[in-house]
Design goal:
Length: 190
């Protein structure tokens, strides 16, 4: 099955990437197809509330001429969507928020294509704000009718500089256990 891994950090190889990779490594090993997205590299602008998606209902975003429509197609095609965002001032990054608003809104005003996909979030932080940010990402899954597997702890970790998250052993075990639960769910869906 297909996994879309969405990195909302402006650092393509940073801690968010490492957390997403930790999960994707297990899913890929089990034979699932991984589609990786780094939002910073795509330059996805925020939703401008033009509402054309709700009028035209063609499953596309008409608000900006950027890469969002390709991302909409990739999101629609996925069975699992992984969202990763570092904590920025106690909250998600602007990059991931733009994805959530635009893809979530198009899904809601059309055929709810996000419903019943599996969703899981990962959040690195230097020190604090990780649970609020984790909750923000999970709220998006839940309002879109997605199924959210858990782990043995919340999927958060601590590190400041790029790569430091690898030293958070408890976070790595949490991600390994999360991957097992995603695989279990995928097996039920297959
Ligand atoms: C603009 C900005 C705001 C940040 N705000 C917070 C914060 O509120 N709490 C925190 O613990 N870390 C904060 N951080 C640190 C990052 O969350 C942390 O370095 C994280 O590991 C970065 O992940 P990345 O390597 O995937 O970008 C902030 C970093 C930046 C650049």
């Amino acid at each position: 099955m297909r996994v879309l891994s969405v990195n909302g950090s402006p650092r393509p190889q940073g801690n968010t990437h490492l957390m997403l990779q930790r999960i994707c490594g297990h899913l890929s090993k089990a034979g699932h197809e991984i589609d990786e997205v780094c939002l910073e590299e795509m330059g996805i602008a925020p939703c401008r509330a033009c509402m054309v998606c709700a009028e035209v209902k063609d499953g596309q975003c008409h608000g900006h001429d950027d890469a969002c429509n390709g991302l909409l197609d990739r999101s629609r095609a996925a069975d699992v969507i992984l969202l990763g965002s570092p904590v920025y001032f106690g909250s998600v990054t602007g990059q991931i928020k733009a994805y959530m608003d635009r893809v979530g809104f198009v899904s809601r005003v059309t055929d709810q294509f996000l419903a019943r996909k599996i969703g899981a979030a990962v959040v690195p932080a230097r020190r604090a704000g990780e649970l609020f940010t984790f909750a923000q990402l999970n709220m998006w899954f839940l309002i879109n009718g997605m199924v959210v597997p858990g782990s043995t702890y919340w999927n958060v970790g601590h590190g400041l500089r790029e790569g430091e998250i690898a030293g958070d052993q408890e976070a790595m075990v949490t991600l390994d256990e999360l991957a097992k639960n995603i695989l279990w769910l995928l097996e039920k869906l297959r």
